[in-house]
Each structure stands twice: as structure tokens, then as C-alpha cells.
Amino acid sequence: MSNHAIVRLKNSFPMTTKLLNSLAAATTLAGVLATAGAANAASLSYSKSASVAMQETDIINAPLSVQKFDSSLGNLTSVILNFSTNVTGDAGFENRGNGQANVTVNLGANITLGTDNGLDLTGISPLSPSVSQFYTVSGFDGVNDFNGTSGKSITGLVASDSSSKTFTDANDLAKFIGAGNLNFLFNATANSNVTGSGNMASFINTLAGANLSVTYNYDTAQAVPEPTAVLGLGLFAGIGLLSQRKKSWLKISNS
User: Fold this and answer.
1) CA distance 211 to 82
2) What are phi and psi of 172, to 5 degrees?
3) What DSSP state is assigned to residue 135?
4) Are 58 and 190 contacting, i.e. CB atoms less than 8 angstroms apart?
5) 131: which strand partners?
6) CA 96 to each of CA 100, 128, 142, 153, 203: distance values in angstroms, whole numbers, following the listed order
7) Staple 95 to which of 106, 150, 228, 229, CB 3.0 to 4.6 Å?
8) Nearest CA to 166 among 118, 115, 112, 213?
9) 96 CB contacts (<8 Å, ≥6 apart)?
């Protein structure tokens, strides 16, 4: 080997170092691309709701229907079911006894949510909204008007209750997927009353309504590059750089 070749060979060492640095950079870039590709997978959610308008109880099998999950959007991972109810009412009473009376007005209802698809609603139904108000009135004032010193009329009584349940089991999630609606049934049985004197005239009206919302949590269905495939591309590029540098090194050493 000539002295000129030896000098050129020595001068190729920095080039080799640059080659190794380039290979490391290519590998690092591949890792970054792989991570970025994995990050493209997104978790999203949306909600559907239904309601039963306020109406006099008792309410039997009022429908609450929400649209099922469209599987073309992605993979359903969980479902959150929120159920709430409001009970409202008016009441009146008149103490017809001779003495003072302590009177309690109770507004409430037994609320249930059902479905015909076998979904377990334990923990979300039943609900028991209720409210109580207490009064002290004198003996009968001679006028049966639900007013005066011996009676009272009450408006705007309100009671509410709510519950929530999260479904993650595959068998449960399958019931939420498909075309059309998922059907639920709302029932409300009033248990309102007025208590007090043994000589009491009273009335109470009870109304109930409900709201149901379903939140679908899912992963998007978009294609995500396999990290190993992206890494392989990076290594392939690095090997290409190595091959080119090797050819240059051999040409120098053989000259």
C-alpha cells in the first residue's frame, strides 16, 4: 500500500465516525416516527340522550330510547349511562280538629328504569326522590279553604335523584352497538302523603319526569403504522448510508 493510500486511509476515520453518527440519527428518527404514529390513535366520546316530560303519576312503561353506537366510528371501549328524575307537586291541607296540629307534607315517588335487552341495571335503578316539609297550624278556623290559621296551600314542591353506571364488559358493550335505538322503560309510582291531625282534609298532586343519557367512549378506527415497521425503514436507510460510505472507503484504500 502506497504512502498516499495510508494517509487517505487515516483520513477516512473521521468519515467513519460521521457514518456511525448518521446511522444513530436515522435510528433515532425511526423511533420518533414510530412514537408519532402510535400517537395518531385517538380516544373520543359522544353522548345521546332522551327524556320523559313531566306528567302526573303513576307512569307505566314510558319509553326512553337512545341511538346505538355506530361501530364504523371505531372500537367501543366503555359506556356511561346516566339516569336522573325529578318529582314535582302541589299540596294543601286543613286541620279540622279543635286543637293545634303538627302537619307533614311528603312528596316522593318510586322510580325504576327497565330494558328488554337483558342489560343489568343494578346500581342505576330504582331511585327514590323525596322531600318533606313541616308545619304547625291552629285548630279549625271554621273555613275549609286550605288556608288561614288552620290550613295551608303549598306549590312548587320539588325532589330529584340520579344515578350513573359504567359498562366495560364486552357482552354489555355489544348490547349498545348496532343500528337503531336502545330502548328503556321509565316507571314512576307516587308515594306522596299528608300526615297530622286525625281530623284532616288534604290533597296532593305528584308529577314525575326523567332524563337518560348514554356516553360512548371509543378509539378511532384510523390505521396506525406499526412501530416496528417504521423502525425497520429507519434502519434500512441507515444501512444504505453505511453501504455508500463503505464503497467510498474501499475506493480510497485501493488507490
Assistant:
1) 8
2) -70, -45
3) E
4) yes
5) 107
6) 10, 31, 8, 15, 14
7) 150
8) 213
9) 140, 144, 150, 197, 199, 200, 201
Quickly list H helices, the chain: 3-11, 13-39, 170-174, 227-253
Cell representation of residue 146: 286550605
State the Cα–Cα distance between residues 189 and 86, nearest whole angstrom.
13
**Strands of 8-150, DSSP E:** 43-56, 59-67, 74-95, 101-115, 130-137
pLDDT in tens, 8-45: 434 444 544 454 455 444 444 444 444 444 445 589 99
Distance between alpha carbon 170 and the CA centroid of its chain, in Å?
A: 16
pTM: 0.72
Q: Strand, helix or coil at 241?
A: helix
> What would the grid cell of residue 243 be?
453501504
Q: Supply φ then ψ for residue 99, to 5 degrees.
A: -110, 170
